[in-house]
Design goal:
Elements (H helix, E strand, L loop, with lengths): L2 E6 L7 H11 L3 E4 L5 H13 L3 E6 L7 H16 L5 E4 L8 H18 L3 E4 L9 H10 L5 E3 L2 H7 L7 H9 L1 E5 L19 H21 L3 E4 L21 H16 L1
Parallel strand pairs: 1-2, 1-8, 2-3, 3-4, 4-5, 5-6, 6-7, 7-8
Length: 268
């Protein structure tokens, strides 16, 4: 089973063509990112990806509106903009943690309708502040909406539950069976991102995340279904900063490439 790896555009400060060149040289298969609405800007991005032989995972994260009707209208607008680019699939930070089950389900149903209409798969990310913000809440959604497919960024749940999820075994087991895509960031009980997963003080957290990802890889291998991974360690302020100087304590790009190579070695 081949696992494809994607770089996050989040945090990039280089010209996009230079970024794409670096992504390709590092050994990634593509990029995960949002897209602008401006046709010219979007065209430049898509042309650069194609020129460097990189695939696109569309990303939606702009779920800000409190009014559900306005929220749903903008959700559809952003998704249709991503669909038009024909990405491999779309990863959505869908809904809000304060929306009711019925309100968030309206958004899941809208995404499912757009996916059927377009033929572009749309999946939903486990993320703080969004509908799937906690393990037990996600379990409720997956039980009630059994065809829901997710991007598992389990680092968020470590932060939300202030633990390495020792008491959430049933909840995470169900989530694993619904996972199509992984964000391979390493979280810990007090935050969604360790400062550097290469540091020995984070060995317990790293090993726990590797064990979780092992189970997802094994499940996909058994089903012979494709699996994708975005190495999504983020920039400041996900990346901790030194006081006063505001310098990041580690290099985001280096960490993400390290995570890709670590997982390639482990699973290939």
């Amino acid at each position: 089973m081949k696992i494809k790896f994607y770089a996050p555009q989040w945090g990039n400060t280089l010209p996009f063509d230079t970024f794409c060149k670096n992504v390709k040289l590092a050994g990634y298969d593509g990029v995960e990112m949002a897209l602008p609405f401006d046709k010219k800007e979007k065209g430049v991005i898509l042309e650069a990806l194609a020129r460097h032989g990189l695939e696109l995972i569309g990303q939606y994260w702009q779920s800000f509106e409190r009014d559900i009707d306005v929220h749903a209208a903008n959700y559809e607008k952003y998704l249709r903009n991503l669909i038009a680019a024909k990405p491999v699939f779309i990863n959505c930070q869908t809904g809000k943690d304060y929306f009711s089950f019925e309100q968030n389900k309206l958004l899941f149903d809208l995404a499912a309708s757009l996916a059927r209409e377009s033929g572009i798969r749309i999946i939903h990310e486990t993320h703080r502040g969004k509908s799937l913000y906690a393990a037990h809440v996600t379990h409720h959604y997956l039980t009630r909406i059994p065809d829901l497919r997710i991007t598992l960024d389990i680092s968020h749940w470590c932060n939300v539950h202030e633990s390495l999820l020792e008491d959430q075994a049933a909840e995470i087991a169900l989530a694993f069976m619904h996972t199509d895509h992984i964000h391979s960031r390493v979280g810990h009980p007090e935050g969604p991102q360790v400062n550097d997963p290469r540091a020995p003080e984070w060995s317990e957290a790293l090993e726990k995340h590797l064990q979780w990802w092992d189970q997802i890889v094994a499940a996909h291998a058994a089903r012979q279904s494709p699996l994708t991974v975005t190495t999504e360690f983020g920039p400041a302020t996900y990346m901790p900063l030194l006081p006063y100087s505001q310098m990041p304590v580690a290099n985001q790009w280096d960490i993400n490439v390290h995570m890709m190579n670590l997982l390639k070695a482990r699973y290939h």
